[in-house]
Amino acid sequence: MSSRRAFLGRLGGAAIVSGGGLDLRAWAFDVDQGSQKGRDLQSLRIDARRLRERIETLSTFGRPSGGAFADGVSRTAYSDADVAGRAYMMAQMRAAGLRPRIDPAGNIFARRAGTSPTLKPILFGSHIDSVPNGGNFDGDLGSLSALAALEALAAAGIGARHPLEMVVWAHEESFAFGRGLACSRIVAGDVSPRDMDEMWNGVRRGDAIRKIGGDPDRILEARRPKGSLHCYLELHIEQGGTLERAGIPVGVVEGIVAIDRYEAIVTGVANHAGTTPIAERHDAMLAAAHLTVAVRDAATRAPGRQVATVGHIEVTPNSANVIPGLVHLSVELRDLEPRTLVTMMDDIRARARDIASTTGTTIEFRELARAAPAVATPDVQAAIERAAASLDLRSTRLPSGAGHDAQMMALLGPMGMIFVPSVGGVSHSPKELTYWEDCARGADVLLRTLLEMDRVD
Known about the structure:
Elements: H1 4-11, H2 48-58, H3 80-95, E1 101-102, E2 108-112, E3 122-127, H4 140-155, E4 164-169, H5 182-187, E5 199-200, E6 203-204, H6 205-211, E7 231-237, H7 242-246, E8 250-256, E9 258-267, E10 271-272, H8 284-300, E11 307-309, E12 313-316, E13 322-323, E14 326-335, H9 338-359, E15 362-371, E16 374-375, H10 378-390, E17 395-400, H11 406-409, E18 415-420, H12 436-454
Parallel strand pairs: 3-4, 3-7, 7-18, 8-17
Antiparallel strand pairs: 1-2, 2-4, 5-6, 8-16, 8-18, 9-14, 9-15, 10-13, 11-14, 12-14
Helix pairs in contact: 2-4, 4-12, 8-9, 10-12
């Protein structure tokens, strides 16, 4: 295996530009022989028209009956629309000269061999399953851009040293079985055979995986060992409004935020809404309302990008003429720094004690889930920035407030994500939109980042 220094030496001084980025005029390797050709590749791009056509075609699988592209898609994991969309993806891979394979978890992989077979693969891709009534860019862009990047390299006659492996992750969204990142999680090693017996809507999870071509009887064989990847890259729409507001076309993800989730149980006294004076009430709903405000205050009290949300509430007895005696509500906290979540929760607990005292109720918290942050690797972030700069595109670093398969792959090796703007910050909605030129730019950055990361052993 050659050292990084020796490899850069073979490229020669012309291969480096200011800031350490690639000079693509000196970066070309024959697919068969691996020899430097020195052809001018400064114009290297993905096929933007084909990328758009494929995104539009993929949108037909799960589109509302009689609807159009703007009406969004319901292509939930394991649905018939998901099966059809996956078949379309594999057909496109085959048309590109690739041989797609489905692992036991249902993930779709396709690989181009590298010129140095001892090197670890660069894995890149996304997902194509959606939430109910979702949009046409979440996941789809990253999956189809991965294919576009491989096609662009093949068309230019560029053979990478590392194996290049694209992936279409199965079951990324958390709609089915109440699990998110479900099948990348399996690859990362978070799986037990008994998981295949979980039930959802009358369907056994193992049978759902079998429906999409997986093999639940061999589910443990889907795991990959830690350290088996050179790196993982994922292009995705931002799903927020930061990039659009700033007028910046490329986001370099610093990491995927930690998430702490709690259930708050507010206990009061149910009583007649007409005969109980206000001063004598122990209104659980009133306390829950104050607690909801307290959750927001905890997030806004200090500067930063932390967020806190009350998104689910259940009221008992939930009758118009009864003072609520019991309320369950969710409290979800997100930030890249786990300590910030602890500080916010301490603030919420303190406010809850005051609210309980004032309203004559009790408030308890039960921890439901805790997800650690997944920090993007600094070297991969820098490679993305160099790739954007080589295209004369401005970039900025920002956290991801949403979960992605990349956080599972960060358990196996270096990870990086590329964001492109979401119009209005809207996602998980038929109104989700990323302009076609931004889609193409993001795919080009992914393509150049593959070359950047391929330089390093």
